[in-house]
Amino acid sequence: MKMLIKNANVISMDQKREKYEENVDILINNNIIEKIGKNIQVESDVKIIDATGKIVMPGLINTHAHISMSIFRETLDGYGLQQWLEEKIWPMEDKLTNEDIYYATYLSCIEMIKTGCTTINDMYFMTDDIIKATTETGVRIQTTRTLMSNNPEERLEDLKRLIDKYKNNELVSFNAGIHGLYTTNEDDTKKFIEFAKENNLLAHIHFCENSKEVEDIKKDYNVNSPVDVLKKYFTEIPTILAHAVKLTKKEIEELATLKNISVSHCPVSNLKLGCGVAKIQEMVEQNINVTLGTDGQGSGSNLDMFETMKFTALLQKGINENPKDLPAYEVIKMATINGAKALGLEKNIGSIEEGKCADIIIVNLDTSVTKPINNIFADIVYNAKGTNVETTIINGKIVMENRMINCLNEGEIYDKCEKIIKRITM
Amino acid sequence: MKMLIKNANVISMDQKREKYEENVDILINNNIIEKIGKNIQVESDVKIIDATGKIVMPGLINTHAHISMSIFRETLDGYGLQQWLEEKIWPMEDKLTNEDIYYATYLSCIEMIKTGCTTINDMYFMTDDIIKATTETGVRIQTTRTLMSNNPEERLEDLKRLIDKYKNNELVSFNAGIHGLYTTNEDDTKKFIEFAKENNLLAHIHFCENSKEVEDIKKDYNVNSPVDVLKKYFTEIPTILAHAVKLTKKEIEELATLKNISVSHCPVSNLKLGCGVAKIQEMVEQNINVTLGTDGQGSGSNLDMFETMKFTALLQKGINENPKDLPAYEVIKMATINGAKALGLEKNIGSIEEGKCADIIIVNLDTSVTKPINNIFADIVYNAKGTNVETTIINGKIVMENRMINCLNEGEIYDKCEKIIKRITM
To answer: How many whole angstroms separate alpha carbon B28 and alpha carbon B25?
Structure first.
């Protein structure tokens, strides 16, 4: 199956350059970008998508979330973190069934497709049901069986089973998702890292989200800094640190000496939970690979990566009192190619290049909130919203065209999710 | 002309309570909300708007902007404030014609109507052309001839002329818009305040936006704190302070002792210009009337008040590291009734009450980003976007229905604005 995107204004960045090219055609053959060029001629049976005047860019990559938490949206307002977890989230999570996880994930898949996110790095439980929903809707996922010191062996066995079960699913990959150093003891951390090395997996871990966590890690691992634990155990495998809010300038400098560390910056969740603002500008200056995440909707509200780009760009400028911090193209890199690199998928996704998978979104900037266009990168970061995404293509398949999505009835999914939350709050 | 909004789920707050009521009808007679109640019966010729399942709330009130700056959207990226003004904005502003101002304002009116903002407090120049655009599109405006120590007498004369010219325009009111203490000397400040008192106007002034401004005021007015100037001259007229970023906790306490002071918090602009984050939580604790603004699009990017609500709610939580700061309903008050109070219009707008003007928006929360609804106030603040607004009514007139807007062709307006910015950057 071939498909041609005509007259695209393409934004696509690799690690070394920013790129914007007008009026090019993109030929897709099955799931692969076969050719990019001017006036590509094709047979009459090739599906044509006219992108005249539109922005075409790589699908956005969300490097940290818990997408089955869609149903917990806005349960946090007025609560402190611990109180919210103990009184609201944990009792509700205890009641979730496999079917609940499927529908809650399905809702998130619709949300992602409609806001231009094509790849998600997820960490939750009932992973089979999560994968069922992402595969049916066509969303690319990297996931795990969450690893922690509560039945560690069973969790490793299950992760092994998952890896084997989905080894032929092109949209699914796995990492060693270690919940956190404060929920995994030192012996188990060693075990999990060993497993990751043996299975050629990268690690994904909550890291220094808030002050209490930092204190817990120092005590449990008997270190002066949480970064010391990374230096001891995480040097041989690529690792994604979710949050990394509570790091000093010095700790960031040490972090930068480690190879293969990426940070998943989740600004909205970090603000909402009262954690603070990660020092992203310093990380960029230290050449740490910064990527973007939304976190689960329980704390992050939604999965809109455009909004996450905007918060990222603005927070650093405001907090550092420097409007020159984080130019827009730097933030677009975080949401695309940097994310791909963090997930070990940079050969397949993250930019629009011949030979890569066709994970592509088409964005309409012809609205009263985006016009006139004085700086295309800045308009994407500051004015485009998820709702500006018209068409979403994942692995060569059109999963949304002109805002119409191919899946179960959206209204039915909303109703299912309303019913789940009502039942589990009873 | 009568109109009935059926089955509305109404959010409306006055200063003392939060209010959410389901399935009520709102009868509008000409420009006034005549009756709110269950199952209101009307004649067959009354226009019916079915709001079943939708949120109906007061039109949002933007208390600080420069809406003719729409055309400067995203010219700031990568610049410092002073460099941006000197190299980009001022040379472009010098070239603006009356027609340019009309079209640039027109673009902003479309933007406001489409994002549910029904009242704008503006400060710019060529005020007649601004009013022409707001009146034609049906947007409510409070405006001024900007007052400063550059031809002060001429400016006062012009403001007098404007007040007289538009005294019968129900959508237009005026204030004494003093640009700033750093652009107005002490004698002129006294003159402007005297004028405001005589003409029964409130004052609107840029105040403590950044550190340099604070230092300039201290020097120019020979005071220890900019608040001292307010204590000396601004005690007898209600005053809106735009920004108020650089105030210490002690200065906020002093500010709270003054009567009739409102703050227009512009979080997005403050971040983007590298000014910082205003201490809004402290102001709320001191019972200062906090309202919300977007600032002009040159720094604020857009006029989406939903986004401004979200930034407001999240920034205080994150910066103060307290997720209990600013519950969602508090932020909705800022964007509605508090704004009306600041503009001296609380008898007419800011809430949905019998006898008030019908400035009403209908919001559709039936989307993948807002469902399920666990907390209606939080869903409005964190997940609704300007694009969720379906219908906008201002002063009893439907200016947008089901996203269709009654005005000049939108595409033509975009083209006009693209041409303006191209011409003035040549």
So the answer is: 10
Give strand pairing partners of B6: B50
Residue identified by tokens 């995440």 is A293
Q: How far apart are the first and last CA of chain B?
A: 49
Q: Give me the residues of A, 161-200, that contact B with CB < 8 A.
A: none
Strands lying side by side in the sheet with A172-174: A60-65, A117-122, A140-143, A172-174
The tens digit of pLDDT for each residue in B9-42 reads 999 987 666 789 999 999 999 999 999 999 999 9
Residue type, A134: T
One DSSP character per residue, B309-338 reads HHHHHHHHHHHTT-TTSS-HHHHHHHHTHH
Ramachandran category for residue B373: left, alpha or beta (phi over 0 → left; psi -120 to 50 → alpha)? beta
Identity of the residue in A75, A271, A373 whose CB atom sits nearest the CB atom of B315:
A271
Contact A278, A256 (CB under 8 A): no
pLDDT per residue as tens digits for the range B60-104: 999 999 999 999 999 998 888 889 999 999 999 999 999 999 999
CB contact under 8 A, B301 and A383: yes
Determine contact, residues A288/A256, Cβ cutoff 8 Å. yes
Plot region of A350 (φ>0 → left; ψ -120 to 50 → alpha; else → beta): left
Where in chain A do CATH 3.20.20.140 domains reside?
60-342
First to last CA, chain A: 49
In this structure, what token pair is assigned to residue A217? 């890690």
Question: A2-58+358-405 belongs to which CATH class?
Answer: mainly beta
Instruction: Residue A79: list chain B partners with CB under 8 A.
Output: 323-324
Three-class SS state of A367? coil
**B1-426 CATH fold:** TIM Barrel (3.20.20)
**Over the stretch B193-236, which tens digit does the pLDDT of each residue have?**
999 999 999 999 999 999 999 999 999 999 999 999 999 999 99
Residue of B78, B324, B382 with shortest CB distance to A74: B382
Q: Contact A373/B418, CB-based, under 8 Å?
A: yes
Q: Which long-range contacts (CB under 8 A, 24 or more apart) does A247-255 make?
A: A247/A208, A247/A278, A247/A279, A249/A279, A249/A282, A251/A225, A251/A226, A251/A227, A252/A279, A252/A282, A252/A283, A252/A286, A252/A288, A253/A286, A254/A225, A254/A227, A255/A227, A255/A230, A255/A283, A255/A286, A255/A288
Q: Best interface-test mutation with B: which of A326, A371, A418, A424 has the largest number of B CBs within 10 A? A: A371
Report the alpha-carbon distance of residue B114 to residue A134 in Å, rounded: 33
Dig out the tokens for B391 from the structure: 């219908």
Has this prediction a pTM greater than 0.95?
yes
- Neighbouring C-beta atoms of residue A125, cutoff 10 Å: 16
Question: Candidates 3.40.50.720, 3.40.50.10070, 3.20.20.140, 3.30.110.30; correct CATH number of A60-342?
Answer: 3.20.20.140
In terms of DSSP bridges, do strands B2-11 and A404-405 run parallel, antiparallel, or are they unpaired? unpaired
